[in-house]
Description:
Number of helices: 4
Strand order of the largest sheet: 12-11-8-1-13
Radius of gyration: 16 Å
Structural class: alpha+beta
Largest sheet: 5 strands, antiparallel
Order of helices and strands: HHEEEEEEHEEEEEEHE
Amino acid sequence: MVGGLTIWLAVAARVAGAETTLPTKDVVAQFGEAVAQHRVGIARKTKPVDARPAKPGEIVVTVIKGEGVETRSKSAEPGDWVVRNRCPATGNERYLVKAAKFPSRYGEPQGPADAEGWREFRPQGTDMRYFIVTGADGAFSFTAPWGEAMVVKPGDAIVQTPGDENDTYRVAADSFACTYEIVQHP
Length: 186
């Protein structure tokens, strides 16, 4: 864990533009504060993605163009999927989706696999609660549902699955703008 912590501290310092670490916040409590401040809206992911079956043991490092490493997944298990956003502004970042969540989030493939195994999927349009991190919130970090530290900065979105407050995570500002549709503004 020391190696992972060192990488996280370097990312935190780079994102914050400082040599110090960022404060760690309880993101569920932060979401509650945003609700109380009437800053929470509804959005859904609508842009098609590419996905392929993950190889058991595969680790997916999510890299956001212009920011660097966002997070690193746990080892993939049988049935997990690697998802690639179609968002040039973020470098078409990739992330791991667990087998149990993939069908409800992405449904059935829209066509055959390409030579590398990628197939098009359309997000199922699940309404997600969200708020945009402001300058007053400042940059901070939290532990994502999969156990990795996530760095958040003003402009990013924090999204939460309805009915599961523990499924709360960061979506980089460019990725949110590129892949989500606002259903209801705060």
